Amino acid sequence: MTLALVEVIKNIKSVVYKMLKNMQVYKDTKRNDACPCQSGKIFKKCCMNEYREAKKKCW
Ligand SMILES: [Zn+2]
């Protein structure tokens, strides 16, 4: 395996891991809670729709 390929796999792993972690965080967030992205907005007015779309596509 070449070094470049190892780097690519490392990157993919960290991106997927981050995504799954975010999914878990959003899943545990209630509609009227502060959004986990730290925008200071309420979840339903911030990333909730995005999260729902992403969920539809992924699972
Ligand atoms: Zn947000």
Low-confidence stretches: none
| Morphology call | elongated
Estimate what percentage of residues fall within beta strands. Answer: under 5%
Order of secondary-structure elements: HH
Given the helix and strand composition, which structural class is it? Answer: mainly alpha
Residue-averaged pLDDT: 88
The main sheet comes to: none
The number of helical segments is 2
Tally of individual domains? 1
Gyration radius, rounded: 15 Å
Explain the overall architecture.
By secondary structure, the protein is mainly alpha-helical. The longest helix is centred in the first third of the chain and has 25 residues, at 3-27. The protein has one domain (3-58). The model has no long low-confidence stretch (mean pLDDT 88). It has two helices and no strands. The chain binds zinc ion. Zinc ion binds at residues 35, 37, 39, 46-47.
Task: Give a short summary of the structure.
The protein has 59 residues and is mainly α. The protein is built from two helices and no strands.
